[in-house]
Amino acid sequence: MPYLFSETSFVNSDVIYMDNHATTPIAPEVLTAMMPYLTTHFGNAASTHPFGIAAKDAVEKARAQVATLLGCSPGEIIFTSGATESDNLAIRGVATAQAEKNHIITSTAEHHAVLDTCHALAAEGFETTYLPVDTYGMIDLDDVAAAITPKTALISLMYANNEVGTINPIAEIADIAQKHGVVFHSDAVQGIGKLPSNMETLGVDLASLTAHKMYGPKGVGALYVRAGGYERHPRIQLQPLFYGGGQEMGVRPGTLNVAGIVGLGAACELYQDREKRNQDREISPTGVLRDRLHEELRTRLTDIHLNGHPEKRLPGNLNLCFEGVQSHALLAGLKQVAVSTGSACDSESVKPSHVLTAMGVPHELAVTAVRFGLGRYNTAEEVDVVVEEVVATVNRLRELSRGM
Description:
single chain; alpha/beta; three-stranded antiparallel sheet; 15% strand
């Protein structure tokens, strides 16, 4: 099916895309930057001939672009295959590099890339404290401080929740970690680019990001690793996940995905440019559309419930429970709208979201949750179409339920 792709619209002829937390389309500017490295500039960045030198120069330019967005040094950026690898490298890399410490702190509402890594480390003798979250999905700072012990090797808490959009106070968490001399990692995938992204201001020691959540390609990401030389603590030691050619300072070996890395760098630069253009706005354009969608649905439907913090949330996130309507039935009934039940990693599951469960949402409501993820290319006209179809589908399914 043909795509309509411009600065103001990204839809195909039949379906409006509102699942930008799962993945985003590649921005035209990003694709343009990548194309030479998928065709004529195909060299291996480790080669010393002109083809390799051109590839290496492109990688280093991208490293600088990522570093500029994060307000850090290019030497603090390690390229990976995406956020899952970055999370694994950060958590396992830090934990196994500190032989005298075996305790990790995370939360019950983290992404599975974090939770499953902690579960795997448990089999190797590591202990994990899973902090609770409140009804909005937010971490309590007192809980963080209380959980730290002399054996704590790492705190890993997300910047913004991928399902309900709630933003955690990670700068304050970083202060707590610093006072106790504990390394702090954040799965910052959903926050970077959408929220303040300066690593020095936020105070984190490690942060994971991925290109495909910010209008770049899939299969490439990065891990920010504080270089040390600060008051916080010396250079962070990371144990590699695997071994090979010694690329990426020996921490992440393997032939570099040059085209993907170029795409990540271009996506970061594009975010910088857009941020400058929108710096005088009190609320982002995406946030305006999100609020319009929420208000229209709330006005025209009864018994809907907002999940996540009403204010401290990602601008494009709207997670709603439609009482009495199973989320999978609603998604099946929406023919013109692409949304999700929550994390794309759990899309095949009929169980309630672990995030909503951690927030204390009752089972009968949790199984009715739908996540709308608005993005850069959505329009007001699309919001109006989505409202009409969601309202009609919810009302139809509720009528069917009452007739059974």
